[in-house]
Amino acid sequence: MPSRDSTLLDTRAVERTLKRMADEILELTGGTDDLVLVGIQRRGVQLADRLVDLISASETVRVPRGALDITLYRDDLQTVGPRPVVGRTDLPWELDHRKVVIVDDVLYTGRTVRAALDELADFGRPARIALAVLIDRGGRELPIHADIVGKKVDVESGDRVDVLLEEVDGKTCVVVSRADSA
Amino acid sequence: MSGALGKDLLGLEPLSAEQIKLILDTAEPFKEISERAIKKVPTLRGSTIVNLFFENSTRTRISFEFAEKRLSADPVNVSATGSSVSKGETLVDTARNLEAMRIDMVVIRHGSSGAAQFLAERIKSNVINAGDGMHEHPTQGLLDLLTLRDHFGGLAGKRVCICGDVLHSRVARSNIWGLRKVGAEVAVCGPRSLLPSAIEELGVTVFDHIEDAIEWADALNVLRLQIERMTGGYIPSLREYNRVFGVTRDRLARAPRDVLILHPGPMNRGVEIDSDVADGDHSVILDQVTNGIAIRMAVLYLLAGGNPTLAESAKAAAR
């Protein structure tokens, strides 16, 4: 049971981290031409929105932002079942030949990203897909890594890492809840 | 398998308003899948679903098959003709044999009211009622609700009149149960010979004149005159029926507001509905067909699902 909470990133630190990530996205993809940011529902979408704002502030170009709900691509329906209400996938443009950056809040086992890659493949064949995550908490179960990482943190499997965002949670920060070893 | 709806979907009468809303809300994002170039998600990969149709059906069976394939399930279609049913095998024996082949779900249409429940009580697979006799046709009721909700933005307080052959209609019963649970007002209109006795006890208003129904309603759900079920003289003639109860352009033109037109199909054009109404600006008949696939995908998905609480925590743990 989680017992010791600590703030990994406060509001200012999240903002600074996202600014650096926006710069790294432009560096990695070589600019905004054919660039698309796709957030994974739910907080990945808000993070992608913030990254789009930061990129457009420096590049004066508004990069398209899509949303991906991976619920229907999960590999564990038979064991835990689906969420009762499926979220919305919104990718209203051709993905062929685009540079797609998937955005999510926390990277853990890699299964969500695998599902996202499967879903993207049903929409087209991007020239390149990169992954940007605010937090990489380790513990991968699949051979997946992020190209752009806001903050890497080593935590135990029972620990929780929660990204809170103003738009969803009323405040912005990243909190680590350590499992009580006592 | 069982999920937020329980093991089976047998009708709208046993569902709560929350369960109906859950199905409608779940259907919304499924619409988008049918718009994709690759109209398929892997959600039910490996599931085998038997479409057991003891009555002829084209659109419902195809709609279920589309829904199953778009969720990557493997559908098997069984009709009464050409199967062991025609050799006298019972419903339960047929289903048990299929279940011994390790199927996951059965979609059943049957001419007898209660057949779906009879089956559901005797097999482990999920059972979905695709129309049983004159009882219920829940997925048709749900797609009607979704179509109305899409158009009006909500269902509470909306006035829906079900017109025509209510007596023989399983669609009418599912509509009445479903609409009333979500707060809509429901009426029926048709010749008394085609209305069940004491229909008022279901909480519906009865109109004897189609003009009164049109004046009252926000939407008309026009039912097919089920000529094949009419062994007695329910109506003098089809011409007479159209003259007295037909939903015509002239009658709609006198309505105090735009009236939405639904029809579960197949239509008898020129009998219960005129062509220029069926194809007119206020007709959402083809939207109903499109929504039917999304509703059936949602029902399959929810019946296949597990515990929502477990799913939420598993999602958080599996990022």
In words, what does this structure look like?
The complex is a heterodimer of chains A (182) and B (319). Chain A has 182 residues and is of the alpha/beta class. Chain A contains five helices and eight strands, in the order E-H-E-H-E-H-E-H-E-E-E-H-E. Chain A has helices at residues 11-29, 43-59, 77-80, 111-121, 166-169, and strands at residues 2-9, 35-40, 65-68, 99-107, 128-136, 148-152, 160-164, 173-179. In chain A, strand 2 (35-40), helix 2 (43-59) and strand 3 form a beta-alpha-beta unit. The radius of gyration of chain A is 16 Å and the shape is globular. The model of chain A has no long low-confidence stretch (mean pLDDT 92). In chain B, 39% of the residues lie in helices and 14% in strands. Chain B contains twelve helices and nine strands. In chain B, helix 1 crosses helix 11, helix 2 (59-70) crosses helix 11 and helix 5 (138-152) packs across helix 11. The A-B interface holds A 69, 72-74, 76-90, 104-109, 111-112, 118-119, 122-124, 160 and B 3-4, 22, 25-26, 28-30, 32-33, 36-38, 40-44, 46, 71, 301-302, 304-308, 310-312, 314-319.
Could you give a short description of this structure?
Chain A is α/β, with parallel strands linked by helices. Chain A has five helices and eight strands; from the N terminus they run βαβαβαβαβββαβ. The mean pLDDT of chain A is 92.
In percent terms, what proportion of residues of chain B is strand? 5-15%
Structural class of chain A comes to alpha/beta
Number of H- or I-type helical stretches of chain B: 12
Kindly report how far apart the N and C termini of chain A lie.
10 Å
Radius of gyration based on Cα positions of chain A: 16 Å
pLDDT averaged over residues of chain A? 92
Q: Determine the mean pLDDT of chain B.
A: 90
